Amino acid sequence: MRGWRKQAPKTLQQRRRLLKKCGREAFLKPDTLAFPIMAARTRTCSVSCKGLLAAKARAGQFGHRRLEAKAQRLGERHGCGWAR
Predict the structure, then answer these.
(1) Cα distances (angstroms) measured from residue 52 to each of 64, 72
(2) Do 59 and 36 form a contact (C-beta atoms < 8 A)?
(3) Domain boundaries along the sequence of the chain
(4) Residues 9-21, mean pLDDT to the nearest whole number
(5) Is the separation of the CB atoms in 26 and 37 below 8 Å?
(6) For 36-68, what is the HEC assignment?
(7) Using CA of residue 81, residue 4, residue 65, residue 71, what is the dihedral sign?
């Protein structure tokens, strides 16, 4: 599936379902269910490089430097092409 827009959990219900299924590691900021990095409609709980890139960009836009750095580190760890 192309693009993070089609994969991202959009509603609070989808985000809660993702939290229940995959745990806190599905979000960069799990306390508020913000910055999801796993796809909503996935059979496996695997980190999405598209989700990480989107979270990194959004964190940078809002001045969340720690979250931006965390997304970068996770991108490098998961072998995302943009994180090199």
Answers:
(1) 14, 8
(2) no
(3) 4-78
(4) 95
(5) yes
(6) ECECCCCCCCCECHHHHHHHHHHHHHCCCHHHH
(7) negative
> Which position has the token pair 């989107």?
54
The whole-angstrom separation of Cα 53 and Cα 20 is 23
In the three-class reduction of DSSP (H, G, I as helix; E, B as strand; rest coil), residue 80 is classed as coil
Q: What is the pTM of this model?
A: 0.91
Taking the C-alpha atoms of residue 55 and residue 43, their distance in angstroms, rounded to an integer, is: 21
Residues 45, 38: contact at Cβ < 8 Å? yes
The gap between the terminal CA atoms of the chain, to the nearest Å, is 23
What pLDDT is recorded for position 19? Answer: 96
Token pair listed for 48: 């999405």
Name residue, tokens 């709980």.
45
